[in-house]
Amino acid sequence: MALSILNNIASLAAQNQLSITNKNLQTTLFQLSSGQRINSGADDAAGLAIANGLQANVTALTQSSQNATNGYGMLQVADGALSQVTSLLNRAVTLATESSTGTVSDSQRTALNAEFSSIKSEIDNIGQKTTYNGAAIFTGISANNNQVTTNVTNPAGLASAITGDMKIKYWDNTLATPAYTTQTFGASTGDTTVGDLIDDINNSGTGLVATLDKTGNVVVTDTQGRGNATDPLADGGSTIKINGDGAADTLAHTSNSGNLNVYLSDSTVAGSTTISVAMGTLDSNNLNGISLASDNLSSAGSAQTALTDINNAIAQIAALRGNIGASSNQLTAATNVMNNQVQNLTSAEDGIMSADIPSEVASLTKYQILEQTGMSALAQANQMQQNVLKLLQ
C-alpha cells in the first residue's frame, strides 16, 4: 500500500467506528438510566406506538375498575336502605293484620293507622335521603352536572383527528380564592387526536377523567363532583370538532335516568360497555311499582286491602334487592376481569418498553472496551503518517 500524507484513511476509518461506538454507548447509557428500551421514537417507532396504545388501555381499565368498585359500593348502600324498608314493611304487616280483626276497637285502629302513616313517612325519608358520594340514590330522572359527553356526528376512535378546543368548567377549591375555573384541552394544548385529548385530560391533575364510550363519544367526568345546576361542568365556549365533523361538537350533560349506569372501557369503542341497574324512585307511592299511598288501617276492610298491598310491596322490594345483588356480582366479576387485563396489558407494555438490564450491562462493558480500543486505534492511525518523515532523513 502506497504511503500518502494527503488523506489518512486509517484515521478516518477509526474516527467513523469510534463515532458509531459512542452512539451505541450513549443509547445503552440512556436505557440503563431510564430503565426503558425505548426513550424516543427513533429507538423503535412501531414499538412506541404499540406501548402508548397499551398505556391508554391500562389507564382506562384502571379507572373503569374504580368505576365498578364505586358502583358496587353504591349498590351496597342501596341494598342496606332497602333492607330497612323491608323491616318497616314487615312491621306494617303486623299492624295491618292486627287492624283486620274484629277484636280491635276503632280507637285502637286509629293508633295502628298513625303508626302505619309513620312507617310510610319513614319510607319516604329513606327514598329521599339515601345518598352515595353526596348524590341521592333513589332520585329518578335528574341532570348529572358532573359529567358531559360530546355529540359527534361521526363516531370517533382514538386515532380520530380533532380541531378546536374542549372547555370544561368546575369549582376549583385549590385556588387561594376558590372560584369557577375553565380548563381548556384540545388543539391549543397540542392535542391532534382523540387519544391525545383523553391523555391530556387524564394527566391534567384536575380530577377530570376522560374516556371514549361505545358510541364513539368522548365522556368527561369530574371525579370530585364539583358541578352543579348553576355552573355545570360543560362550558358553552367549546369549539372542538371530532373526526371530521363540520360543526362544533357541543357538550351535553348526561342524566341520571333512574338507573345506575357504570361505564367500563379499555379506551376503545369496541371495548366499552355500560352496566345499568334500574333504581328509579323509592317512596310509599312507588315501592318498585307498588303504592301504599292510599292505604290506611282505619277499618278492618281497608286494613285487609292494605295487607295485600304491603305483601306485594315486600315481594317487589325483594325482587329489586335480588336485581341489585345480581348486578353487584356482575360488577365484582367485571372488576376481577379488568384487574386481570391491567396485569396482562402492563406485562405486555413492560415487555416492549423495559430495557433488558443484564443485556444492556453486557453491552455497556462491550462499548466501553470498544471506545478505549477505538481511541487507541485512532492514536495509532494518526501516528502512521509520522513514519513518512523517516524517508526524508
Description:
The structure is a single chain. With 393 residues, this protein is α+β, with helices and mostly antiparallel strands. It folds into 3 domains: 9-35 and 355-392; 47-139 and 281-351, f41 fragment of flagellin, N-terminal domain (Up-down Bundle), CATH 1.20.1330; 141-257. Helices cover 50% and strands 16% of the residues. The strands form 5 sheets. It has a 4-stranded antiparallel β-sheet. Strands 1-2 form a two-stranded antiparallel ribbon. The longest helix has 56 residues, at 45-100. The radius of gyration is 35 Å and the shape is elongated. The model has no long low-confidence stretch (mean pLDDT 85).
Give a brief outline of the structure.
This protein has six helices and twelve strands.
Structural class assignment: alpha+beta
> What number is the mean pLDDT?
85
Number of strands: 12
Number of domains: 3
Which strands sit side by side, in order, in the main sheet? 7-8-3-10
- The oligomeric status of these chains comes to single chain
Instruction: Compute the separation of the termini in Å.
Output: 21 Å
Strand content: 15-25%
Quick one: overall form?
elongated
User: What is the CATH architecture annotation of the largest domain?
Assistant: Up-down Bundle
Summarize this structure as a short list of keywords or feature phrases.
393 residues, f41 fragment of flagellin, N-terminal domain, two-stranded antiparallel ribbon, 16% strand, 6 helices, alpha+beta, elongated, single chain, four-stranded antiparallel β-sheet, 3 domains, 50% helix
